[in-house]
Amino acid sequence: MVRYVGVDVGKAKCRAAIMNQTGAIESEFFFENNTKGIESLTSMLTVEDQVVMESTGNLWLSIYDSLDIRSIKVVLANPLKTKVIASAKIKTDKVDARILAHLLRADLVAESYVPKGSIREMRGLVRHRLSLVRMRTAIKNKAHAIVDKYSYHCEFSDMFGKGGVAWMRSLMLNELDRLILENHLSLIESINLQVGMVDKTIRKIACEDEDVRLLLSLTGVDVYGALLIHSEIGPITRFSSYKKLISWAGLAPSVHQSGNVEYTGRITKRGSSLLRWVMVEAARTAVQYDEKLAGFYERVRARRGDQKAAVAVACKMLKIVWFMLSRREVYSCANTRRYGEKLKKIGA
Predict the structure, then answer these.
(1) CA–CA distance from 53 to each of 31, 48, 87, 110, 118 (Å)?
(2) What is the DSSP string of 131-159?
(3) Residue 29 pairs with which residues in a beta bridge?
(4) What is the distance between the alpha carbons of residues 229 and 283, in angstroms, rounded to a whole number?
(5) DSSP percent split of the chain into helix, strand, coil, nearest 5
(6) 111 band by pLDDT with thresholds 50, 70 and 90
(7) Rounded to 5 degrees, what are φ and ψ at 19?
(8) Cβ–Cβ < 8 Å for 6, 97
(9) Has this prediction a pTM greater than 0.90?
(10) Which tens digits make up the pLDDT trace of 188-239?
(11) Which of 20, 83, 207, 319 could make a disulfide contact with 346, Cβ separation 3.0–4.6 Å?
């Protein structure tokens, strides 16, 4: 007989509520969020039971994997949507183990997509690289601030290239600013090494993944972008149409209705913010080299401005991505030379 198990996940302790088919709570208990505690939970469950918990950071991963290995169905709830549903149906905005079990029993859980292990690892890698690059950018900005403080002007095109760094180290600064600048430059050098190590692994993964190789044919998408797009989307079969993919990325326009009047507004921005970001970045590059996309961009820009035109191109490119991955085809307008260079870069 099916039982519904709600798990309120915490960093140290979790609370579980086991509910039967009539909606009665059979048992409710705490368990520690570690190997021993998770084992105590799984020992009380059978393959007929269903478990639901909220997606809270990475705290749910160990519990999810332990239950999944034992073929126990696990549903990962979207925190924001689940809170709205709980508030509407049960008149409370506090989502705990009991409420999660109630929602699962009533089939009202807004489920989050859980990628398989290899995709999760890929996501972790590309997100780690992004965090390193953002950290490096923040430190570069601090170095710029010190140079600007003395009104120095760099003659090098890249202030953080070999010549630019040597120039900064030759500047006349007071003792404290010299120390701070040296610290910043040392940190940038260290991060550059870390990024290089990550890029080496990214190229290796890209070479072995067919979806990534296909995505590289799309103008404006580099190795890192292709891996990020693939890791965020997962299997393209998740989306029955390109419209659903665009909506999931938050690039679909919002729709407003009033009586018989319907009009569209700004994009929803609900979904994968990283996928949305990388597609807009790719669009900015693509319009410089792809005549077809550039023409579309110019037509939209003339009517709606630069930013909206870039978003429109990103939306169009994501539609192309859906067709490419669904049909297992390279981009029809791919630049053969550039595509060959990208494949050569990953050793394919």
Answers:
(1) 14, 17, 17, 11, 22
(2) HHHHHHHHHHHHHHHHHHHTT----SS-T
(3) 16
(4) 13
(5) 60, 15, 30
(6) confident
(7) -115, 140
(8) yes
(9) no
(10) 999 999 999 999 999 999 999 999 999 999 999 999 999 999 999 999 999 9
(11) 207
